[in-house]
Amino acid sequence: MKLSVVVTQSERYINEFYARASSVARRLVGDEYEIVLINDGSPDNSLNRAIKLTEDDVRVSIVDLSRNFGHHKAMMTCLAHARGERFLD
After folding, report:
1. What pTM did the predictor assign?
2. 46-55: long-range contacts at Cβ-Cβ below 8 A with a sequence spacing of 24 or more?
3. What is the DSSP string of 34-75?
């Protein structure tokens, strides 16, 4: 795995982010990338949208936290799950 893209998710932007991040990652490293989405207790429907992305693309994974621990903790947890040699956040 050459590249990991890690991000907290938002229902409003998740599909657009996925499309743009995938496009850029493909240009940079071909298919050797992953997108790691973190759900940090978001009250919207973003987790369901993220699950749908994982069903359609094996390069997408989800870290699902039990509640909102704050942005810093969420990103550190997401980075701990990333497998890439380089990271984009």
Report:
1. 0.90
2. 46/9, 46/10, 46/11, 46/14, 47/9, 49/9, 49/11, 49/14, 49/15, 50/9, 50/14, 53/14, 53/15, 53/18
3. EEEEEE-S-SSSHHHHHHHHHHH-TTEEEEE-SS---HHHHH
Domain harbouring 57, CATH code: 3.90.550.10
Count: domains in the chain: 1
What residue numbers bound the domain in which 67 lies? 3-88
The type of residue at 87 is F
Q: What is the pLDDT of residues 16-47, one digit of tens each?
A: 999 999 999 999 999 999 999 999 888 899 99
> Token digits for 73?
């903790």
- 88: which 2 tokens? 């984009």
